[in-house]
Specification:
single chain, 245 residues, alpha/beta, 7-stranded parallel sheet, binds NADP nicotinamide-adenine-dinucleotide phosphate
Length: 245
Amino acid sequence: MKGKTAIVTGASRGIGRAVAVALAKAGANVTINFAGNEKAAEETARICGQFGAQTLLVQGDVARAEDCAKVVEETLKTFGTVDVLVNNAGITRDNLLMRMNEEDFDQVIDTNLKGTYLMMKAVSRTMMKKRYGRIVNMASVVGIIGNGGQVNYAASKAGVIGMTKSFAREIAAKGITVNAVAPGFIATDMTAALSEEAAKAINQSIPQGRMGTPEDVAEAVLFLSSEQAGYITGQVLCVDGGMAM
Ligand code: NAP
C-alpha cells in the first residue's frame, strides 16, 4: 500500500480503527473519519503514526452529503488523491419490528446505506479520472441470513450488498473494484452490550465457537484494498468463523 491514500469512515473505534491501522501498517496514508468521538480518533491516528503513516482526522456524519464531500475534499487537499475507500461507519438501533419506531429505522438506513452511497459518489470522480480505485463496503452476515430484532440493520446491510454489486458493474471498466466484507459477530462496542447469556448462545451458533476480532476483519479489508485484488469485484467476503456458509 506504499504511496496509496485511503479513507476509512468510522475509524475512531472497533473495526474501523483496526482497518485504518492495517492500512497504515501496509504503508498507506489514512484519512480517519469519525462522527463525534475525537479522542478515540486521535488514538487511532497515534497508532497509525507508529508505523510511519501520515494521517488526517476529519469529523463528519456520513449520512450528510456535505460532510461526505468535506471528507473527500480535505483528503485531496492533504494527500492529493484517493485510492481506497472503506465504508465502515455503521450503527444499530435494535428492536422487534412491532416496537421499532420510524426514527430508529430511518437513522440506521441513513447511516449504513445512504452513507455508503454518498461516500462512493463523493470519491468516484477522482477514482474514475485516475482509472484506479478500491472500494470496500462493510456489510454484515445479518444482511444475508437476517436476525430477529434487526430488521432496520439487516435491510441496510442487504442494501449495501445490492449496491456493492450494482456499482461494481457500473464501474468495472474504469479500473475500480467494489466489494463487500460481511463480518459475523465481532467483539467491539457494537456487540459489548450483549448479555453473557446472549454471547454464549451466539458463540454456540458459530462453527469456530468464538466471536471474531476487529483484526480478523481488517485483514480481509486490506486484501480487497490491495492492487493484488484487482480482478475481484462485486463480491461479498464473509468473515464470520463459518456462521453464514
Ligand atoms: P463501533 O465499535 O460501534 O464503531 C462505529 C464507528 O462508526 C465509530 O468509529 C463511530 O464514530 C462511527 N460512526 C457511527 N455513526 C457514524 C456517522 N453517522 N458518520 C461517521 N461515522 C460514524 O462499530 P463496529 O462494531 O466497529 O462496526 C463497524 C462496522 O462493521 C459497521 O458498519 C457495522 O455495522 C459492521 N459490523 C459490525 C459487526 C460486529 O459484530 N461488531 C458485525 C457485522 C458488521 P464515533 O466513535 O465518533 O461515534
